[in-house]
Design goal:
The chain has 659 residues and is of the alpha+beta class. The protein contains 13 helices and 17 strands. Helix 1 packs parallel to helix 6, helix 5 crosses helix 6 and helix 11 runs parallel beside helix 12. The radius of gyration is 55 Å and the shape is rod-shaped. The two termini are 45 Å apart. About 11% of the residues have low confidence.
Amino acid sequence: MRAQRGWGLVYGLCALALITVLAWVSIEVLDLEEQQRTARAEARHQESLRLALWRLDAELIPALAREAARPYFEYMAYYPQGRAYTRMLNTLDPGEVLVPSPLLTYRSIWFPLHFQLSPRTGLTSPQVPLGQQADLALLTCLPDTEMHRNADVLERVRRAAGFDTLWAQVMAAERATPPAAPPTPPPLPQTVVTLPGEGKGEGGGVDDMAEVAVGTEGAVESAAGSGRQALEEAREEAGRLAPAYQPPAEPAPTQAEWSAAEFGKRNRSKLNVQNVADESLRNTFGADTVAEAPVTVGPLVAVWTGVAVSPAELLLLRRVVANDEQVLQGMLVDWPALQTALLAEIHDLLPDAELRPTDPGDVTPEEAARTLAMIPAVLETGPTLVEDAGWSATRGTLLLAWAAVLVALGAVGLTLRSTVAFAEKRSRFASAVTHELRTPLTTFRMYAEMLADDMVTSPEHRDRYLQTLRSEADRLGRLVENVLAYARVEDGRASLQPRDVCVADLVARIAPALRARAAESGLELQIVLGQLGEELVHTDEEAVGQILANLVDNAGKYAADGEPATLRLEAAREDGRVQLSLCDHGPGVPVDMAATIFSAFDRGAIQPGDTRPGLGLGLALSRGLARDLGGDLVLEALPPDHAPGAPGARFTLLLPRRA
């Protein structure tokens, strides 16, 4: 038992160490898998973010390029034509011919109103003409309801901010725009691509009086078309050169470096827009401008008014300096409509995205990578969604590893337990056999020497010694037979020949031998079959006789001193089987030994000086034979008719009935 505990402790410590290591490895592997999934999700998210930002900028650039290329004089409801002639080609004086501005009938869901803000003349709009110009517009091209709507929108602009505040914001926005792109290797040719229309809901309202604006848009479209052709040619050239040249691998940029690079690229988009607008103005309006004095037109920039309050107004403004007078020209942006249109463009990439107005001076480096190039708004995407791991190859491998380890530990444990149990059984067998053989061998030797040396002269003593030698020889024979029978049962070599037999006939054949064995111990065997005598069972008679003989021998060893000195063998029927129960009046079996008494070579708690013979093999052999017969041998509670409070033991043999 001490060796079993020692081996069990060693096995437990080794198993615990192995499971601990495997658990640590599993946690590390799962953590690494989680990090990889998070990294992949973050990479996909950043790729979607980059594509979404370029989509948004591409959606805004055409409309803003047209507005940046719009000449300054279109911000007057009616402006004088620089050079005009009669049908007879007579020259008209400057200012004699007034041309309606294309903005007078301009309609857009993004830009509900264009305006001009001057310290001298205040806030005006070409879409809200004054005086006689208003009467003319109402008579010719501008409905009264639209005039009032434009006037209400103009009042919103008036409440937004004053000239000085807006001027300062425009100057700050211009300073925030880089003057030029940083030096880089020669890139593919880039240009501003102008898509047809402004997007969703672009009105137009430009008639044949707005030929000037049409010329401007044609210049922008021409520049975009040449840019697209150059871009396609560059891509084809890059495809031909790609196999011949592989750039050296560079370390992956950090998040801060990526943010700075992306912000710089989108800021350069703003420069491209202004460059196209300036070129269009120079090519289209070089000769026919209204004012003869130099006019300076600044870049179109976006500013927020009232970002800290709700709702905030978004204005697109530019500086215009003409005749030493500084004015601001621009338009009011319908931010909800623009935001809805922009988010619809990226809904497939970032369905939960939002655009948050921001002050360019308060943008953090992390937010800079998500800020639009044309409008000071940050793209909010929410947390990165990591897909559920589900069933992965890594988890399957770990599961197989755990299963293999647990199966291996179980197999090693069972093998170790069987080995230790076999060693203990062998030790008990050697101890029991040695103990059992010592007494009869000593008796054999002593009596044999006495008889051989003629030391026993009395015939009665000689006969008693010979009878003792015979009984010891029989006991040794039964001992050897039990050992051999147990070995056959353990190996599955028991030669059983079951047949149908009547219970009464079965008991009648084995009863004489049972009574003789009981009588040797001073016990009387009582047999009560009742109405089950005619019951047929399918069993082996010799095996049943050996089982009951072992039970009688055990009763003779432990219950011979019981009162009354009787053994009761009775039959009963239960669950389709026949029960043969043998009940004695001995000391009984302690509860803690009820399971161990059926173990081989286990005689229970043997007190010092106990001289009762036995190997502890009878009950183990009997149960083995009973189970080979298709039944069982169990220790049951005493029957109800047993004397109240009296000790005793009841062993029941279960036999299968005839099928």
